[in-house]
Amino acid sequence: MVEQTIIDGNWLPYSFAFLMCLSMLIYGVLDGYDLGVGMLIENANWHEKDRMIASIGPFWDANETWLILGIGLLLVAFPMAHGIILTKLYLPVAVMLFGLIFRGVAFDFRAKVPYQQKWRWNNKFFYGSLLMSLGQGYMLGSYITGFDSSLAGVTFSALIAVVLCSAYCLVGACWLIMKTDNTLQEKSVKWAKYHLVNSVAGLVAIYAVTPLMNKHIFDKLSSFPEAIFYLLIALFTVTLILWLYRLLRKMPMPNDRYCWLPFAITTTIYLFTFIGLAYSFFPYIVPNKMTLLEAAAAPESLIIMLYGALLVLPILIAYTAFAYYIFRGKARDLSYD
C-alpha cells in the first residue's frame, strides 16, 4: 500500500521541476558570467583579453553541463512539454547552438594561432558569446509570452534578449572584479556599474510589461496573498541592487577586500529574480496550456529516472565545487604548454 502511494504520488513531477529549475539557475549564474566575460572582451586591450579568457578557461566548458542536465531532465520527465517548447523555440535554439560552436572553436584556436591572427578569434569569441546570450534571452521572452509570434510578442522577446546580455555582462564584470587585479579590475568595476544601471532599467521595463503579455501572471499579481510574495521578492531585490551599487562605488578596496562580494550579491539577485519567475508560471510548464502534472511521464518511469538524477547531481555538484576550489584565486595568463 505504501509503495503504491509513493508511485502514484504527485510529488514526482514537482521534484523533477525543482531539479530542472535548480540546474537552469546554476547554469544561468555559471555560464552567465563566462558569457558576460566573452561579451566584455571587446572592450579590453590585448593583454587584458588574455587575462579575461584565463579567468574563465578552467570553468566555461563545464559550466554548460548544467544546461545539458536541465534540458535532459525536461526531456525525460516532461516529454510532451519538451516537444512543444523546443518546437516553438527552434530558431533561437539554433542561433544559440551556432553561437556555442563559434565560441568553442574560437576559444581553442585563439591560443594556437600566431599572435598576429589572434584578433580574429577574439572577435569570434565575442560574437559567439553575444549570439548565445541573445538566443537565450529571446527564448526566455518567447516562453514568458506563451510563444506569442505577434509584433508585440517578438518585440518583448527582443527586449529581454538585450536585457539578458546586459545582465550577463554585469555578472561577468563582477566575476572579473574577483578574479583580476590592477587596471583590469578597475575597468571591471566601471563595466559593472554601467551594466548594473542598464540591467535595472531593463528589469523595470520587463516587470511593467510582463503582466500585460501573460494573463496568468497578471492574475497572480492581482491576487492575495500572491501579491504579497511578489512584493517581498521585489523588496529583497531592490535592497540587493542598492547594496551592490553602493559597494561598486567603493571598489576596488585596499588589499582587495570584499572583491568576492559583488559576484555574491549579483548571484543572489539572480536567485530572487529566478524564484519570482518560476513562481509566476507555477503550476504550468507550457505557459497557460499544460501543467506539470499533465506533461509528466508515467510515475513508474519517473521513479527510475529520479534515482539516476539523484546519483548524477551530487557528482556534478562535487566536481564543480572541486574545480572552483582548485582554480581559486586571481587569474593568471592562460597557457597550453
Descriptive report:
Helix content is 80%, strand content 1%. It starts with a helix and ends in an 11-residue tail after the last helix. With 337 residues, the protein is an all-alpha fold. The protein is globular. It has a single domain (12-326), classed as Up-down Bundle (Formate dehydrogenase/DMSO reductase fold), CATH 1.20.1630. The chain has helices at 2-8, 11-40, 46-56, 60-63, 65-77, 79-88, 90-109, 118-144, 151-179, 182-213, 215-221, 226-250, 261-281, 292-295, 299-326; strands at 284-286, 290-291.
Q: What is the CATH C level class, in words? A: Mainly Alpha
Strand order of the largest sheet: 1-2
Distance between the termini: 62 Å
Average pLDDT works out at 87
CATH architecture: Up-down Bundle
The major pleated sheet works out as:
2 strands, antiparallel
Poorly predicted sequence stretches spanning 5 or more consecutive residues: 1-7
Order of helices and strands: HHHHHHHHHHHHHEEHH
Counting helices, strands and paired strands, the structural category is mainly alpha
